Automatic annotation (TrEMBL):
This is DUF3367 domain-containing protein. Residues 704-854 form the F5/8 type C domain. The chain crosses the membrane at residues 90-107, 119-138, 193-210, 222-241, 298-320, 332-354, 384-403, 424-443, 1036-1058, 1100-1118, 1124-1143, 1164-1183, 1195-1215. It comes from Candidatus Corynebacterium faecigallinarum. It comes from the Bacteria. GO terms for molecular function: transferase activity. Keywords: Membrane, Transmembrane, Transmembrane helix. Residues 639-673, 724-743 are annotated as: Disordered. Residues 654-663, 727-736 have a biased composition (Polar residues).
Length: 1221
């Protein structure tokens, strides 16, 4: 077989790909994968050599940083002297060329297509939707797709070798494939695994389970090859397997707080799967211009669906331009069609069973992906299983087209100037147009994501240099970057990672999308950032500086160059807090860079020995607190208001079960945290709902509602429903609400008795939104008293008894500041009342919804009380309650429980300003400093202050008393996150780990230990802290490097030996034909027409197995309708020929309609008809077109049509194998 491209052709192809990459945003660096790769690649690679870093936010285990060591990071590091944007484009060009060349070589090895059709197929693969979507934004994922053909190629070649291949040839093939696996890197282990799966499937189908006359020989070859291949693969992957195991062993469960399987598989309808748009980010982020266009624009949807149908037609045996054989056949299956179909089927199964909109098993699969299978959650990484068979089909379909060259005078004059006279030219033109549209995002310059940048402004480097300077003291503390941002998207460009990340050598922290730290540390970080939010910008926390120091923060960097969007607040609130509030006294501005683009503030007190380094505290000085780590700033404020220095704390959930940690028998501080809320992990502001009841509906799809706090949900502060329950279609307090959750607009607000709060519907039109009040028992006659929060509302009030409608009426609810409206509901037994909004004037909301039984006058409205649980796990009694609303509820409402009659003193954040009445306790007004006696039992506390404290005399006395002795246990405390991989020792004595302040790493120094006699200073001087897996990590990397070098050396030696021994080149064409492949092979007959060579070993068993698998897959994707569709399709394909033969026995000629019917019921024609109809329906409703409810990808019709299409393709390959349909 002649090669597809000559050396000059390969050079031209490489140049074309280079030019294509260079025209994408020339001069602009974009946020591709990691900012460090362009900003500081050598420093990034150096950091990857250690699993733990104290520099990154709060101290953390690095997430697969080692995976960048080769080849991604090394490529950028070696080319670091070049301009950043140019290095990116060179990487893209290399990736695109390798994807293109790999497919060309693979098609040559499998004898699919002609020279021209192979080039078209290779271009379609290199510019497939998967690569176009990921190339500019996360090219590490596109890289693994590009190398799939190279991993497969040696496997394909070796299993076609005739006879018994030599061990040397097997070694060359195995090591060649293993080298390709080595080049995959390990930025994402699942992406690397996904890139190997096609090769494994080929090895199984063509080797282990080979059929035919030489099947036994091929099976032996497969196992002999595996004996080389598996060790080679181990050497290729060894360098990252150990670090990955370390990551899995010690990493916090961050997969619970990122995208859920429900999101990653949401767009797995068959139409999207077949055309290759399975990456969920493309549907949600317009930043990825190419991917977003492919996902949402009808013209690209149409073009990619046409490509997919062309691929399916080719796999089913269609060949444009092919001449009919002696038996009239046009359909000729591509070589190895059965194996390509197997690969496609596995891909369809992976995507369809996990996320098809009507799959009966999708929920179970998604539960697995959100649990034990979380690393596999982003199944779009398996796209090659779909797209590689598709482009093989395209190459085969176009393989018979032979158009004259347009670059010759005759071809241009006689054929291309008059395409109507040459069908091959017409086919070529259509191919060029379809391929051009399908790949248009590339050649129109949309591969680059939005907001590229020329360079990072110099003021960022200046600020980093200032902080890195030891004389400025930032090395001894941690710098907090504010305001928080999900991703770093600045007015001058989008880096995604923080610009300071690649520049800082000192510890820093920022609240971004998902900090890779324990969830308790994230809660603490959220508690700090809320103190700087615009809502709290007036700074009622004069102890904010102390709270920051307690968290290890001694410097605050305020950036004003962030792009302000819904989930990224501006810097105004932060600057107000630091310069013009009660908290400002604790901060001093020490540096400014640019036009005040970056300002640095020192936290007063951070110069006294630093805030991040280890310090020693007496364990008895640790206050036992029932709460979450987010409450620490509030407690610091409450301590300061009482005239005390904020204390370090040990939370009740962190108290060892066999020890009495903390301040002996001192009373416990009780807070209303953690509370049962729902968190939107996709944003960092307005991400948390109001406080919920346990059975309230969830709106996010993640495995956990909120960042865990080490407390069971039953022991959290939550809503207790009595008298019934209240539900709603949505609410503005839902964490998924556009613009963020408003905790004062949940369903509780409709019945809380506060006029300023109200239930407000969620995002979108309020029309047809509803609020439902369900009673615990039926009532015969009720009245409804209601009031709207904004303008008047017209609502439909409907009463129900169970699921039966009792009656319905319409009413107008007056607006806010008007008298409430009372409506007598229709008479009849009812246990539920639904209020559905029919019309709204202005903002829509219901601030009051009260049901009264007419006969008795009893208020039967269900209550939603927010109950604070009593502390568990400790023997001390509550001595102080500190309740608050950092997430603004407008009015705090809590129910606390007192075990016995208790006297408390009232304090709040407004007391220092001379406020009078600050709260209500059981409906009675109380003022600052007032002493109130609480009887045993429950008490309701209401306040509009940010926090309120109720302190017993016992707690006050214990807080003022000094420690009786200084000879008790001590704790060495660091402001870095707890991790069981961290180990500390003093003079060889290993210390026990303890968690302080909810997330900080501490080590206990027992009073009876051998080092107890050391002073605090001596303890710190003798302290040795290490991450236990560091040595293993580094040794494993070293061993992996040695293994990789050994693999490369073995490949080189085997290759040289093969050439010297006369074995030829590994890519020399194989002369032997493979007649016993499960698919049919093409061979020319005496007339030059193509006929079919068919295996004699495939029979009824293979057909039955193929049919059963297809039926099961159809049922798994769309349940009973899917199975029925598959059966009907097979019935048509089987029945139509039988009917045709029966009719032809009665008549020698068939009328034109019948001939058209017979043509349509051929497998390829039927597949294209069904697929074409499905494609038309898809194009009519792309994602984002008008109302999202119009999205066709979640409709029954296209899903079933594509099932029928795929069934017909399977039938064509497995059942009707011969030409002459």
């Amino acid at each position: 077989m002649a090669p597809t491209l000559s050396r000059r052709g390969w050079g031209a192809a490489a140049l074309c790909w280079l030019v294509l990459a260079l025209v994408q945003g020339p001069g602009l660096t974009v946020a591709d994968t990691k900012h460090d790769l362009t900003a500081n690649p050598w420093g990034f690679l150096q950091q990857a050599l250690s699993p733990w870093t104290d520099v990154f936010p709060l101290g953390q285990l690095q997430n697969q940083a080692y995976g960048y060591l080769f080849p991604h990071g090394l490529f950028f590091a070696v080319l670091d002297p070049l301009p950043d944007w140019l290095v990116q484009r060179l990487w893209w060009a290399l990736l695109l060329f390798l994807a293109f060349a790999g497919v060309v070589k693979l098609l040559e090895a499998t004898r699919v297509g002609s020279r021209g059709s192979r080039i078209v197929a290779a271009v379609l693969f290199a510019l497939s939707p998967r690569i176009l979507t990921t190339l500019g934004a996360i090219s590490s994922e596109a890289w693994t797709i590009a190398l799939v053909p190279w991993v497969m190629l040696p496997v394909v070649r070796v299993l076609q070798l005739p006879g018994r291949p030599s061990a040397r040839r097997l070694a060359v093939a195995a090591s060649g494939s293993a080298v390709a696996v080595l080049c995959l890197g390990a930025v994402n282990a699942v992406a690397t695994l996904a890139a190997v799966v096609p090769a494994v499937l080929w090895w199984l189908a063509q080797g282990v389970f080979a059929t035919g006359q030489d099947a036994r020989l091929r099976r032996r070859t497969a196992w002999r090859f595996a004996a080389w291949w598996v060790p080679g693969g181990v050497l290729a992957c060894f360098w990252w397997i150990g670090p990955l195991l370390t990551l899995g062993r010690y990493s916090p469960p961050f997969t619970d707080y990122i995208e859920s399987a429900g999101i990653t598989s949401y767009w797995f309808g068959l139409g999207e799967v077949l055309r290759g748009t399975t990456s969920w980010t493309a549907f949600l982020s317009s930043e990825r211009q190419a991917g977003y266009a492919l996902a949402t624009e009808a013209v690209f949807m149409a073009a990619t669906l046409v490509v997919a149908l062309a691929g399916l037609a080719g796999l089913a045996g269609a060949r444009l331009g092919a001449r009919r054989g002696a038996d009239g056949a046009r359909r000729v299956l591509p070589p190895f069609a059965g194996t390509w179909l197997l690969m496609l089927g596995v891909g369809v199964a992976i995507f369809g069973l996990a996320g098809a909109p009507f799959s009966p098993v999708a929920e179970s699969v998604q539960s697995f992906l959100d649990g034990a299978g979380a690393p596999l959650r982003n199944l779009h990484k398996f796209d090659a299983l779909i797209h590689l068979p598709m482009v093989v089909g395209v190459a085969h379909l176009l393989g018979g087209v032979s158009a004259p060259s347009p670059f010759t005078r005759e071809g241009l004059r006689d054929a291309w100037a008059h395409p109507e006279k040459n069908p091959a030219v017409v086919t070529s033109l259509v191919t060029i147009i379809v391929a051009g549209v399908a790949t248009a995002p590339a050649w129109t310059g949309r591969l680059v994501p939005e907001d590229g940048f020329r360079s990072v402004p110099s003021y960022w480097q200046d600020a980093a240099d200032w902080l890195n300077d030891e004389e400025n003291g930032a090395a001894d503390t941690r710098t907090m970057i504010l305001p928080e941002a999900r991703f770093a998207r600045q007015t001058w460009g989008n880096t995604r990672d923080e610009p300071a990340q690649a520049l800082l050598d000192v510890p820093w922290v920022v609240r971004d999308a998902v900090p890779l730290v324990p969830p308790e540390a994230i809660r603490s970080l959220d508690g700090i950032t809320r103190e700087f939010s615009p809502v709290n910008a007036q700074g009622r926390n004069p102890a904010l500086a102390d709270a920051l120091l307690q968290q290890g923060v001694g410097m605050v960097l305020v950036r004003t160059d962030l792009t302000q969007v819904a989930d990224t607040p501006g810097a105004r609130g932060v600057l107000t807090t630091l310069t013009d509030s009660a908290a400002a006294e604790g901060f001093t501005e020490v540096a400014s860079f640019g036009d005040d683009d970056v300002r640095i503030f020192r936290v007063d007190g951070s110069g006294d020995g630093g805030a991040t380094g280890p310090r020693v505290v007496d364990e008895d000085d640790l206050e036992v607190t029932a709460g979450g780590a987010e409450v620490l700033p509030r407690l610091a404020a409450a301590d300061a208001a009482a005239g005390r220095t904020p204390r370090d704390r040990i939370l009740t959930q962190d108290v060892p079960s066999d020890a009495n940690s903390g301040s002996g028998d001192d009373p416990v501080t009780v807070t209303d945290t953690p509370a049962l809320r729902e968190h939107n992990y996709g944003t960092v502001t307005g991400a948390t709902s109001d406080i919920l009841a346990a059975d309230d509906e969830r709106w996010t799809r993640n495995p956990v509602r909120d960042y865990p706090a080490g407390v069971h949900e039953d022991d959290m502060t939550q809503v207790r429903e009595t008298g019934g329950r209240i539900t709603a279609s949505s609410s503005a307090s839902d964490p998924t609400s556009l613009g963020g959750a408003d905790a004062a607009s949940g369903i509780s607000a409709a019945v809380d008795g506060v006029g300023e709060t109200a239930w407000r519907p969620g995002t979108g039109s309020p029309i047809n939104q509803w609020l439902s009040v369900e009673l615990d028992q039926p009532r015969s006659q009720m009245s409804l008293t209601a009031q709207a929060s904004g303008g008047p509302l017209r609502v439909q009030a409907t009463t129900y008894l169970g699921e039966e409608t009792v009656a319905s009426t319409t009413m107008v609810i007056p607006g806010y500041r008007e008298d409430s409206s009372r409506l007598l509901l229709p008479q009849g037994q009812a246990d539920r009342v639904e209020l559905r909004i029919l019309g709204a004037w202005g903002s829509a909301g219901i601030s009051q919804a009260q049901l009264t039984e007419v006969d008795t006058g009893e208020d039967v409205t269900p209550r939603r009380d927010i109950v604070v649980p009593s502390p568990g796990g400790v023997h001390q009694a509550p001595g102080r309650w500190v309740l608050g609303q950092e997430i603004n509820e407008f009015e705090l409402r809590r129910v606390i429980t007192v075990a016995e009659d208790t006297e408390v003193t009232v304090n709040s954040d407004r007391c220092a300003a001379g406020a009078g009445t600050v709260s209500l306790i059981d409906g009675e007004s109380v003022s600052c400093g007032q002493r109130v006696t609480l009887s045993a039992g429950e008490h309701e506390v209401r306040s509009r202050d940010r926090w309120i404290s109720l302190t017993t005399p016992e707690y006050a006395a214990a807080a003022e008393a000094e420690a009786a002795d200084a000879d008790g246990d001590r704790v060495i405390l660091t402001a870095t996150t707890v991790n069981e991989g961290r180990q500390a020792s003093v003079d060889g004595t290993e210390l026990e780990s303890v968690t302080v302040n909810g997330w900080q790493q501490g080590w206990r120094v027992p009073a009876d230990s051998g080092v107890a006699a050391l002073s605090d200073e001596e303890l710190l001087e003798s302290l040795e802290v290490e991450f236990t897996a560091t040595d293993t990590h580094q040794r494993w990397l070293a061993a992996g490097l040695a293994g990789a070098l050994a693999l490369l050396l073995a490949f080189a030696i085997a290759l040289v030996g093969l050439r010297r021994g006369g074995g030829g080149r590994p890519d020399d064409p194989v002369d032997a034909c493979d007649p016993d492949d499960p698919a049919d092979l093409v061979a020319p007959d005496a007339t030059g027409a193509e006929t079919v060579v068919t295996s004699t070993k495939t029979g009824a068993v293979g057909r039955v197995l193929g049919g059963a698998v297809t039926l099961a897959l159809a049922a798994g994707i769309a349940g009973l309708p899917g199975a029925v569709t598959a059966l009907v399709t097979v019935g048509v394909l089987v029945g139509a020929p039988a009917l045709r033969r029966a009719l032809e026995k009665k008549s020698t000629s068939s009328p034109l309609p019948l001939r058209a019917l017979w043509r349509v019921t051929e497998p390829v024609s039927l597949a294209m008809l069904l697929g074409g109809l499905g494609s038309i329906l898809m194009v009519r409703g792309p994602w984002g077109s008008g109302n999202y409810g119009n999205y066709a990808g979640h409709s029954w019709a296209p899903e079933l049509l594509f099932i029928g299409c795929l069934t017909a393709v399977v039938y064509a390959v497995v059942v009707r194998r011969r030409g002459g349909d």
